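Forwarding these from the shared drive since the link keeps breaking.
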Amino acid sequence: MVSLRQVLHRVAPQDDTPAMHPLIRVTPSVEGALRRGEPVVALESSVLAQGLPIPHNAEAATRMVAAVKRAGATPAITAVVAGCATVGLEPDELERFLRRDGVRKVSARDVPSAVAKGQDGATTVAASIMLAAAVGIEVFATGGIGGIHRDAPFDESADLAELARTPMIVVCAGAKSILDLAATWERLESLGIPVIGYRTDEFPGFFSAETGIKLDTRLDDVADIVALYRAHRALGRTQSILVAQPPRSSSALPRSSVEQAVQQAQLEAHRGGIQGAEVTPYLLAAINRLTEGGSLVANLALLEQNAALAGEIATICSGA
């Protein structure tokens, strides 16, 4: 029987040297790593500019970047900087995004608009993997992906569509707890996006490790994840693969506590007339208040944990 590791060697790419995209600025450290075939991990900027409160967003950036570097990889935060689509932020640019003055949230469809208008744009999962893939990065880390909303099933995150058309290894802690997780799981299946549980048999629930949603594929070894991705690509599949890693028990919240907080937060949002792009940040802030800061602790920990795993995966992908 052929093992996943044998598959990895059989279908490993022959040339890892990427061609830089003419319309995307790549910082020297990231470009150098890519041209040398060294491991690189893409990171989103929306979680820093919209998802986490000041000053915890700076802490998240520091912890994620450090975790990627400890694994031997180069971190590359994606964004639109003054109208320039960018992979990798310089220190002064990151500081501006952490202050979040005039920084808009951009999904994949919004990147051209932000470029044309010369704006600062913090990239979501969808926009981040779009930019990362365009310059040859294969691994991306985030907290939780977007999905199907609970009270509006027609409201589907653009993350899912981008995951369905952009090849990438995406490390996450499942989908955000505020979503309809069962519906999101079904949509992932419909879109043909493989979901691998890393050392878990259950689809994680972002702040909590349990959702009751059974996964079809579990892998306990990082090399096996890379082998599966290589086989996926060799078969001509264009979707991302989702690597779902549950938050550690030391920081995860009980499933029942998260569910109670989400329901209360949704009720408050409805009463307050919160709509559109304001819903997600409002709900996350409300849940943090209702869990007495527990969700923030969990969020920071899982972001660092996912960045570390992504760094390990990228290192094996590159053969480093």
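-- next protein --
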Amino acid sequence: MNDATTPWVDPELIAAGKLLQERGLVAPDRTVAGLAEVRAMTDRIGAFLGEGSVPLKDERDLSLPGPHGQVPCRLYLPDAVERPPLIVYAHGGGFMQGSLNSWDHFLRDLVRQSGVAALSVDYQLSPEVKFPVAFEEMVAITRLAAREGAGFGIDPSRLAVAGDSAGANLALAAALAMRDAGERALKFQLLIYGCFSTDCDSPSWQRFGQGAGLSQAQMRWIWETYLVKPEQKGDWRAAPMVAELKGVAPAHLIVGSLDPLLDDSNNLVAKLKAAGVPCDLTIYEGINHGFIRYGRLIGTARQAIADCAAALKAGLA
């Protein structure tokens, strides 16, 4: 029985949740668990979701210069594509967890299906390193790709920024910084269930941010952990939705219908359209936050990856 109070949930999402529970792969509450435990479980879940993932013929780890020291990155080149375009990718994890390895399988799928190379950025995490360091590292690596990307074997005139969740926040902020600097190489953004504002009280937060998964309490804690002081909640580098968006690169957004960040995506698209920025948003029914890495278990996630790959291909053609 589906009525207005009980939204439809994808049965494959429920099955995936049960499977992870049976395997003991349940993310601890990051507001109470130790940092090392939270990060280790993120990586264990990532390893399970990535089982059977086949590496591309050309994947390599790079150490690239950033404003706060060297930034570890991983480059994925599509097979048999000469000088492909490139996405500079920031993984999710609330600015405080996530790693290159845990996003491997998803980025391989995206690269294979789009023919677009990916550069995954292992930006520094909070609370050891706070705002705006992750933002500054994402901007620096994007600029470096525009300047020196030919040396990676890619076409540096066709760049995109991309990310999921906290990573989509960093991607949009980097796109704004590129626009402000008059950089023309950035042609596209792929923004996957991003947190684009510091608002944790919107209707979608109140509706979907109460239980397991991404909760209001967790999101408030994430902002407290990431920012140095509360006033930074109004800084566009932390909350890129507050920026003037005119002239930023075109964007493809996706989000699940059960995601507490649903309003962030809807509101950003409305603001982008009002600013004359070409954009579109796909809302996947019955799916919650964090689904993009679940392609092995959930058909909707596989569909979303295919849709993102098609949007990237078109946006960087």
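The chain is about 40% helix and 15% strand. The longest strand covers residues 58-66.

- D.
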